[in-house]
Design a protein that fits this description.
Layout lengths: L3 E5 L4 H13 L3 E6 L15 E5 L5 H4 L7 E6 L8 H4 L1 H21 L3 E7 L14 H20 L3 E6 L2 E2 L12 H10 L4 E4 L5 E2 L2 E2 H14 L4 E5 L4 E2 H7 L4 E4 L14 E2 L2 E7 L4 H26 L6 E5 L2 E5 L8 E2 L2
Parallel strand pairs: 1-2, 1-4, 2-3, 4-5, 5-6, 6-11, 7-10, 8-13, 11-15
Antiparallel strand pairs: 9-12, 14-15, 16-17, 17-18
């Protein structure tokens, strides 16, 4: 019985959200493969139905040898996924996106496993010419070309979903692999100026993680072996997004490989792309984020002030709420409502 779903990059931003969704929506067991270059153990979802394996996709056949006859589908989200950084870390990008992904495709083909592949809008912009802007876009574009040939040559079955600037729960908010929204949120909380790569007029179709994951699930469930894109109808410039945070803005020098617009396309390599649009608004998300954080800051400030009344008091956090406890004077206590 094929009762296992495999997710490469399962400890990452998108992969962990997909796993969480599948645990709620299905009865499948799940195996995550991650090399933890950007994935984190803190993203692990607690469940007896999931197994986390550390490793690189180059070794996927060896890693999954004893499970291969029980695998129903494989979501391949474990690739190098940043444009500018792909120049600096070209070898890592090539090893992951070209060599590693080739091994994933071959493993699925050899074992008759359905593949769901995360493509990128970075490879289809400017009438397809953006695919040559960076090592990242190039390798992702070549993988689409390879998959389409595998379909022609061997009848390989797969779904492809084009992602557009995904943001939301568990997004990376620090380090070289951080997302735009993650960086802005972190800078806002630290009361630092928001940094924008010049010119700031470059536009993106920011798409919430919940909308992205739902499209991945629907594509897997429909099992039509076609290609999809999931984006948002509303397009924002990076400067417009930064202004939503009502913070000071500073500009960084232009970067190599930078795209100046998000592109929607109807076809790629002569295959039709079914366009899906998310329901969650970036503006609403940011407004809600700021409101919630300011509320928490106000509560924390009030509790800290209360704590100073008795030096034996301690601030603790339990199940998402902040409490003041005092072992020497149990009646002296407070909690966040």
């Amino acid at each position: 019985m094929k009762n296992i779903i495999v997710v490469t990059g399962g400890a990452g931003f998108v992969g962990s959200n997909l796993i969480e969704f599948f645990l709620k929506k299905t009865n499948f067991k799940i195996i995550s493969i991650d090399n933890y270059s950007s994935g984190k153990s803190k993203n692990h979802i607690k469940s007896k139905r999931i197994k986390y394996l550390a490793g690189n996709t180059i070794n996927i056949s060896k890693i999954l040898e004893k499970y291969k006859r029980k695998i129903n589908s494989l979501f391949h989200f474990g690739e190098f996924a940043r444009i500018f950084q792909s120049f600096k870390y070209f070898s890592e990008c090539f090893d992951s996106n070209s060599i590693g992904s080739k091994e994933v495709f071959k493993f699925c083909l050899d074992n008759k496993i359905k593949l769901i592949y995360s493509a990128t809008s970075a490879s289809i912009g400017n009438k397809g010419n953006d695919k040559n802007l960076s090592p990242y876009a190039f390798t992702k574009s070549k993988n689409i070309e390879l998959l389409n040939n595998l379909k022609i040559w061997f009848g390989f079955k797969f779904e492809i979903i084009y992602f557009y600037n995904v943001y939301g729960k568990r997004q990376i908010d620090s380090g070289e692999m951080a997302t735009v929204i993650g960086i802005f949120e972190s800078q806002f909380l630290s009361k630092k100026p928001l940094t924008i790569v010049k010119p700031g007029t470059q536009t993106r179709r920011f798409t919430h993680i919940d909308d992205t994951i739902k499209t991945c699930y629907d594509a897997w469930k429909s099992n039509k072996c076609i290609q999809y894109s999931i984006s948002n109808k509303k397009e924002y410039s990076i400067k417009e997004v930064a202004k939503m945070f009502k913070s000071k803005i500073v500009y960084l020098p232009p970067r190599r490989g930078e795209r100046y617009a998000s592109a929607l396309t109807k076809t790629t390599f002569n295959n039709r792309i079914i366009k899906k649009f998310g329901k969650i608004s970036l503006k609403d998300y940011i407004t809600s984020f700021i409101k919630e954080k300011k509320k928490n800051m106000k509560i924390a400030s009030s509790l800290k002030s209360l704590k100073k009344r008795d030096l034996n008091s301690k601030l603790v956090k339990r199940r998402g709420r902040v409490y003041i406890i005092n072992k020497k004077n149990p009646k002296f206590k407070a909690r966040q409502k």
